[in-house]
Design a protein that fits this description.
Layout: H1 2-20, H2 23-40, H3 47-71, H4 73-76, H5 94-115, H6 118-142, H7 146-154, H8 157-166, H9 171-194, H10 196-201, H11 207-211, H12 213-231, H13 233-236, H14 242-264, H15 270-298
Helix pairs in contact: 2-3, 2-8, 2-15, 3-5, 3-6, 3-8, 5-6, 6-7, 6-8, 7-9, 8-9, 9-12, 9-15, 12-14, 14-15
């Protein structure tokens, strides 16, 4: 019996540390990183960069997420969405979580330095500090524009993937960053509307708390229009072809539909449904970029 209990505890502890890394968020980031890598390569991505480059990025992203858990542990304990997180329930101590974050971050940077290049490592470090220190430690509690300013750190993965392959920055990966940067506010503000009362309870100045739901819905609609326009730029600069254009227009039109539904408040649960669609939207858009890229190479 004692052995069974020990095994269960070890399994739960392993899952707790995995949860600290926000694995679902990291997976979406890695998809955009992978697309950045493959778009940068014409003859395929070297397997060392493909595996270890993404591993290093994942470790650093997971380390930044663990810091977020530590800083937000008190508000996480109050909010329904986060009250079961490992630190909020006391299953992992802040010291242990910070040690875990440091181990992941240092390990991730070391992997990037060894298997990719210095520029990728330093850009990843800047992204890590932007999210863990600037956004989580300051912006989140300082301004309702927190997610707009801090969103740049979360938009970096396709640039990191591109630079890991090429060793330099160019216009194309910056455009991919711009797409995610424009996508982040409507994505996150939809969730903020859905969780408005919880954010108000813990004094986090999210836009719907400080300026009201109508103001936020207007800005979601405006940012979605900006995002839609930005997603057409890869075709405009001949970075992608007709397949991507069709997908971008179709996916973007659906996003605009949800933003309009949310603005008009014409369907129940519009905020959370907009948020959920936004995740599938970004995933599908980047997959369309990748498929279109290899279709163009085959012609």
């Amino acid at each position: 019996m004692a052995t069974v209990l020990t095994e269960r505890h070890s399994q739960a502890l392993w899952r707790d540390y995995l949860e600290l890394t926000k694995p679902k968020v990291v997976v979406l980031m890695l998809i955009t990183s992978l697309v950045g890598m493959f778009l940068a390569a014409r003859a395929g991505v070297p397997w060392t960069i493909l595996i270890f480059g993404n591993l290093g990025i994942a470790f650093c992203a997971g380390g930044a997420a663990a810091v977020n858990h530590v800083v937000d542990r008190r508000i996480d304990a109050v909010m329904a969405r986060t009250h079961k997180r490992p630190l909020a329930e006391g299953r992992v101590s802040p010291a242990a979580a910070l040690s875990f974050a440091m181990l992941l971050s240092v390990g991730g940077l070391a992997i990037l330095l060894v298997f990719t290049n210095q520029l990728t490592a330093w850009l990843t470090l800047a992204s890590l500090l932007g999210y863990a220190v600037l956004y989580t430690g300051f912006l989140k509690r300082a301004t309702p524009q927190n997610i707009v300013i801090g969103g740049l750190a979360g938009a970096a993965p396709p640039l990191l993937g591109w630079v890991a392959v090429t060793g330099h920055i160019s216009a194309e990966p910056l455009l991919l960053v711009l797409i995610i940067f424009a996508w982040t506010p409507p994505h996150f503000w939809a969730l903020a509307i859905h969780r408005k009362e919880e954010y108000a309870k813990v004094d986090i100045p999210m836009l719907p708390v400080t300026h009201g739901e109508h103001y936020t819905k207007v800005h979601i609609l405006l940012y979605t229009c900006v995002m839609f326009a930005v997603t057409l730029l890869p075709y405009t600069i001949h970075m992608s072809g007709l397949l991507y254009l069709v997908c971008a227009v179709g996916l973007g039109a659906r996003f605009l539909h949800w933003a309009w539904v949310l603005y008009r408040d014409s369907k129940p649960h519009a905020a959370i449904n907009t948020f959920k669609y936004s995740i599938w939207y970004l995933f599908s858009l980047f997959i369309a970029l990748l498929v279109d890229h290899y279709l163009l190479l085959s012609l």
